[in-house]
Amino acid sequence: MEIVTIDEIEDKLKLLSDEKLIAVYHYVSYLAEHDLAGSDMSARELMMASESLISADWDTPEEDQAWADL
Asked: What are phi and psi of 39, to 5 degrees?
């Protein structure tokens, strides 16, 4: 598992629009409030469940262009 620091997360958050920050807030709030270790839901299933929430912001020509070189 990759180790990510709070500073690295904060740097990425500073790049997000207000709409994306709202989606991140909801996702992080869910993670903080639920015991996923005791849940039948895997991290991948959680990610897929949240896809519809964030796809409206991320599925745009601007985002495609921003990620084109990766």
From this structure: -100, 155
Angle (CA) 51-52-55 rounded to 5° is: 75
Q: pLDDT tens across 2-46, in order?
A: 888 999 999 999 999 988 898 888 888 887 887 766 666 666 777
Reported pTM: 0.49
| Domain segments of the chain as ranges | 31-70
Contacts of 69 (CB under 8 A, 6+ apart): none
